[in-house]
Amino acid sequence: MGDLYALDFDGVLCDSCGESSLSAVKAAKVRWPSLFDGVDSTLEDWIVDQMHIVRPVVETGYENVLLVRLLLETRKPSIRKSSVSEGLTVEGILENWSKLKPVIIEEWGVQRDALIDLFGKVRDEWMEKDLPTWIGANRFYPGVPDALKFASSSIYIVTTKQSRFADALLRELAGVTIPPERIYGLGTGPKVEVLKQLQNKPEHRGLTLHFVEDRLATLKNVIKDPELDGWNLYLGDWGYNTQKERQEAASIPRIRILELSAFSKKLK
């Protein structure tokens, strides 16, 4: 009958870590200007470097802005407003982000929705002012654009990124047009709910269902929901996950660890 692939975007199709880190620094400067007084380019570069290491913890883009401030607080004791930043390492962030996040949100008085709006606005302004450098701060993983162009399967994008950014990157950087109704971005509901919508569409009856994701936590949520037992689940080992997470995934029967070359072949 054919195959349906639901694909995560960041960490599966596109390495957007450079762009999201730079956008997060810009957004943090807008949100907390006084904290960045006296922050030189060396410290900013250090933050962006560390952001590549802690990227696996990010579920939704706005969390990048929280991470920028948290990393800054670990380096500048004078601006500390959170009880968790003293002595915190990147390993500590990787291990404990789900516990740290609610603490800093409360201690900094942050509104999640306001931060999502700000992060989107900063990216929109960057795209308007200088689209080539915004596009250039992202890269598709090798072989992915061609695999998407020549895919014989039904392709859907299921992402926590705002749809307009995924769409712009697909068109401008990968040269791929995916109809907007096939891109489920931030605001379309949790991924488990999107997968249910996809499997329940009459036109998808009889298709073999595949979900490719780079976050182990997301795949575990799918496994918890018996309604989604029909999905084949894959963890992309080239994406934003850690060695420890890949080892855990390998011990879970429902999850297959996928390499990039095998992924591109599957889509074709």
UniProtKB/TrEMBL annotation:
<dbReference type="GO" id="GO:0005768">
    <property type="term" value="C:endosome"/>
</dbReference>
<dbReference type="GO" id="GO:0000323">
    <property type="term" value="C:lytic vacuole"/>
</dbReference>
<dbReference type="InterPro" id="IPR036412">
    <property type="entry name" value="HAD-like_sf"/>
</dbReference>
<dbReference type="GO" id="GO:0035493">
    <property type="term" value="P:SNARE complex assembly"/>
</dbReference>
<protein>
    <submittedName>
        <fullName>Uncharacterized protein LOC107432983</fullName>
    </submittedName>
</protein>
<dbReference type="GO" id="GO:0000149">
    <property type="term" value="F:SNARE binding"/>
</dbReference>
